[in-house]
Structure formats: C-alpha cells, structure tokens
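User: Second chain of the day. Same drill as before.
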Amino acid sequence: MVKLDKIYTRTGDKGRTRLSTGEEVAKWHPRVASYGSVDEVNAALGVAALHADGEMLSAIRRIQNDLFDLGADLATPERGRVLEWTPLRIIESQVQRLEKEIDEMNASIAPLDSFILPGGTPLAAQLHVARTLCRTAERKVAELSAMEDEPVSAEALAFINRLSDWLFVAARAANGNGVDDIKWVPGANR
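Assistant: Same format as last time:
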C-alpha cells in the first residue's frame, strides 16, 4: 500500500523527479509526460463523475482506478533490474473489459451518419473532454514506446487506445444513446 506522509520533496525545484524505480529523470522526460497526460485524463473523468450515476458512475470510477494502474505501469519501466516489489502492469483483461463495455453500449446506439461535435449533456461534454485528453495521452505513450530504451507494454498502449474509444461511445450513450448528439454540418457557416 502507498503511504504518503510528506507531500513535497524539493527535488522538483531543480526540474528533476524520480520514477518509481528510483531512477532520476527530468520533469519533461517523455515518460513523465506520458503518465502526466494519463493523470489529466483521470482528472477530467473526476469532473465527468459529478454528472454520472448508476452503472456509468461505477464504470468511470473503475476506469479512474485503472488509470492509476496505467500510471504506475508507465512510472516503472522494465529495465531488467531486480526490484523489491512486483511492478503493477496493465493486463489484457483490462483491455478486454473496455472492449466488452464498448460493444454493450454501442449496441443501443444508432450508427453515425455524420461526425459529431463534442457536447450535448453535461456528462457527454465532459466525456468528450476526457476523450481528447486521452488521445493526447495515447500519442505521448505511443511516442515513448517508439523510443529506444523506453519500454512500454503492448497492453498499456492498447488500454489507452481503447479507452479513447470507450469515452467516445460513453459520450454518445450519455447523449440519449446518440439522440442528442450534435451533428457536424460541413460548411454550415460559410
């Protein structure tokens, strides 16, 4: 279990931080940027949760927990060193759960006949904000995974990719299963 009794360490005052392995890196390191972006998605979901209830609220809270798992995964690069603990990793079942829930939500939603504008209900609008932040996080995690000596598991990358899809479908579900989606009208304001 994590125990945080001291919030500030002063190491950040010089632009440095430590990964969970103890490795010191710059605050702007792509790995730090990756899990920082994941944290932004989580914060946006915290706001979305204010507008959710029932199954949607439960799903959002579960995903927030999974995002902490992803952050822990990204903060603990596999470098072949023996650690004093077993690193927390995203696993395939977490990706599969998102896929199952996407399919279940999407079954009640009419197919798209136009792109949609982010918005609609307060919950849908906030889920769209989370979705766009998730796409940014996905790009940063993908960029990190492409770097030599910066391993990222296939499951971690799949999870963040699938989550952006989940957020899109969840936003449509929050818009009356797509009924209240705001459709893009190409060239409408020319």
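The chain has a mean pLDDT of 94.

User: Great, on to the next one.
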